[in-house]
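Holo prediction — adenosine-5'-triphosphate.
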Amino acid sequence: MAEDLMTDTHKTDTQKGRVEIDDVVIRFKGRQGPVTALARTSHVLEPGTFTALIGPSGCGKSTLMNAIAGFVKPSEGSLRLDGKPIAGPSPEVGVIFQQYALFPWFTALNNVRYGLKQFGLPQGEEIDRARAALAEVGLEAHADKYPQQLSGGMKQRVAIARTFAVGPKVLLMDEPFGALDAQTRLVMHELLLNIWRKHRATVLFVTHDVDEALLLSDHVQVMSQAPGRLIRHYHLTQQRPRAFSRSGSDLLEIRDEILDLLHPKTDLADSL
Ligand SMILES: Nc1ncnc2c1ncn2[C@@H]1O[C@H](COP(=O)(O)OP(=O)(O)OP(=O)(O)O)[C@@H](O)[C@H]1O
């Protein structure tokens, strides 16, 4: 299979989509004063790379994503996209959530067209682009269906088509496949990797699923308990498609290490 032969190395020098997270701290107002949602964090997402972010519940994963998306302003530090400060939401940064966020009163095609409105394209071109995006996710035959006529996986495909149609430099995905069954997730993994290879957006992918992180990403960043910070980085160079059983690699070892970091073993004797 051609995919097996692909090296997953890519040019990063000429590509756009470099995200710099520089000394960022995020606090929210709590009832008893400020609450730190993200402890001091510095990191760079290199253009065109795929990074998974994994960590305990409430450690600040979504908060970091929301800051990169421009929805939340850092309390300290700065965020830049290709050298420019991130000052608010922009079409250069696409976001996909676990909930599909489709308009129920629009067809699949019109949901994708909605994302393209900002470009003021002639109608014919807008429709062609939306159809091409749906074809990329294998939904050309379902363009005229409404979200309620689509399965969960199909809805998420529409959301992916809508986001990639805009041509974002950065794609933030917050547990995008968390609501899907195991079989559909596998299909979505392959689909996402194929589209990502073609578009080469910089992807930051939040997941609770260590296996999903290891199968998809170039980099896995593990966060600490709240208030979260990045505590461990893994650079994965294994060719895709990956599988634990036949990887002949250290994926299983890395999986165990990450699980230990996420669920440290407490010595029962110590707690007695
Ligand atoms: N707008 C807000 N106002 C106040 N506190 C907030 C706000 N957003 C997040 N928090 C708090 O910040 C902390 C981090 O939340 P966040 O949603 O980023 O965690 P998470 O790692 O994404 O969690 P999960 O894995 O459960 O989705 C939590 O304690 C949360 O309650």
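READOUT: The domain at 11-248 is CATH 3.40.50.300 (Rossmann fold).
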